[in-house]
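fyi for ur records
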Amino acid sequence: MSRPPFLTLPPCARAYRLDTARGPFAVHDARPDAAPIGTALLVPGFTGSKEDFLALLAPLAAAGFRAVAVDGRGQHESPGPREEQAYAQRELALDVLAQTRALREPDSGPVHLLGHSLGGLVTRATVLLDAAPFRSLTVLSSGPAAIAEPQQARVRMLIDALGGLDMESVWRAMRALDPPEAADAATPPELAAFLHRRWLNTVPEQLIATGRQMLAEPDRVAELAGTGLATHVVSGAVDYAWPVPSMDEMAERLGARRTVVEGAEHSPNAERPQKTAEALAGFWSGVG
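which gave:
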């Protein structure tokens, strides 16, 4: 679970519901002072939300990019049905394409797509459906196939719990399993309250369906390479969901730019946002 370092929207950004052909999505939309040189669509990961990118918004806008972070269907402030089939990977990819179309403006520049963790799998599926709307894809802390085996066990436990318990009960059970350093007592009260609220707002069927996707995702790196789309693989120096060497190998197979953000683990966007924003903006500027 990503923990944003703060919850205040920067002055360059505003929160609103983006209306698309596939329904409304809650977004944070940050804009530079001048016409943007490109637009970045930021897709969050498992149990995440648009707030996971809050610390990237101001530095990306300062670098000249419009940055739009989105809650996917059933995530936090975006509505979603209580049916697992609504969260099939193809459905989520079609949502991203609809969001991209809704964001297009005459002066907003090319679109750069970024997916964090689960969002990396969803955005990969998106460009495999249709790469034409995008200038690049950045895969942030996401690997070539299913998550690592130790994490698979945790996700299976969560799926089982969600099948028999309400969201509040699952939250309390998860908190009881947290290591001492992750306890809410060590978390600022406003952040602890946000994490709790976000969890309760998330549709359980979304978590069950996407959790199963992370358990069964096939290796689609060769397909992605075949699109010819400019790609960037970014991670922290340590990652528990996908081993860092597997992301190194994926970048080689893609012929992608590779960035390792020192001092970060699974969420460089929240843990080392300035360095992450610099790497992203440098890549996007280079591909036009």
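Residues 13-145+219-287 form a domain with the Rossmann fold fold (CATH 3.40.50.1820). thats all i got for now
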